[in-house]
Amino acid sequence: MIGADLLLSDRHRTPFAAGAGSKAGSMPGVVIHAHALAQLLEGRRGHRLDAWEDGFIIFLLSAIGMMLTVINAPVGVRSSVGAVLVVAGWIGGFFLYQQGGPLLPLVMPTIAFATSAGVGTAHLWRQEWIQKRFIRDAFSRYLAPAVIEQLVADPARLALGGEKREVTFLFTDIAGFTSLTEQTEPTVLVQLLNEYLDETCNIVLRHGGTIDKIVGDALHVMFNAPSDQRDHAERGVTCAMDLDAFCQSYRLRQATCGIEFGETRIGVNTGLAVVGNFGGDNRFDYTAHGDAVNTAARLESANRLLGTRICASRTTVEKCEHLRFRPVGRLLLAGKTEGIDVFEPLSEAEAASEKTADYMIAYRLMKQGDREAANAFRSLTNKYPDDTLIAFHTRRLAAGEGGNTIVVEKK
User: Can you give the pTM of this predicted structure?
Assistant: First the structure.
């Protein structure tokens, strides 16, 4: 073969790293022509695969591409594995050809692989998007946004079943709500209740609580479920105090309109409970079961007897390092055989007030069974006539009761 060897223009890279007249992995055009002519004269033909072999490779890579879309791994991991397989296929094809092996088809199998993997991934992404949208829509009115994002990231938490964990429960109820329903026009009642529940639910969500149920006018709230909250007890108590502040202002606002809207009673308790999704395949309820739940409900109801608006158990108070309380008494709740120490949360100003100091002196006398406790509470009633808890202890001591144990007979 005769021709010119043009260094700057007639050089071409080939699958062969070295060869006659080649430099730095490239070959002169005249040498390539010589090889092609020699191959034709000698009757040598490149080893190509048959049509059915090409089809089999395309089918195999398409199947692998589809399989990558269903493995249990993040989309990024599946895409990386697919990219590695494609690159490995091209490297292997060139290496095999360089060693004198068959010329593998690379372009069409790569397109088939990318198409199958892409279609499968798009379908799975759409299914995942639908699932996440369902979770957000279903729980947006019951869970704090941070909790929803955790459920979206880990939908397995919505599977049927439960776990035992420490939870702070908060129960609310409106005093005299039954009478209010009988005395108020339905349209007015619906508006009142909707306004009330709208703001109370917003307060709960701002504190990171999970609204377990809305039963009529009552809220059942959980903290530390389903997401972990180290300060769940403090969240529960501060939420109760914010709820109380709103409910008192809302009640006074309605009173100016001639509507007797009752006080909201709140019970807070911390304890172990089984929390999870209970139900069947078609319907389930994320809720909690256990004695800790019942105790919170009993504490809410005990406010009616005590004259208080918020009652928190010792198990809750012991976890609230940054909050202040005053003792209410040792309550023997309905259905219980052992009493529990109950406290009323106070603001910083209330905790530092003279009234709280006076109350603590009288309470210690009462707890010790001192006969002077009755006189101490009687003088406190005259000094602080608006304090309903002081009035309650004054009445029970005047009736001959002693000590700080209080029997709550009604649930």
Answer: 0.68
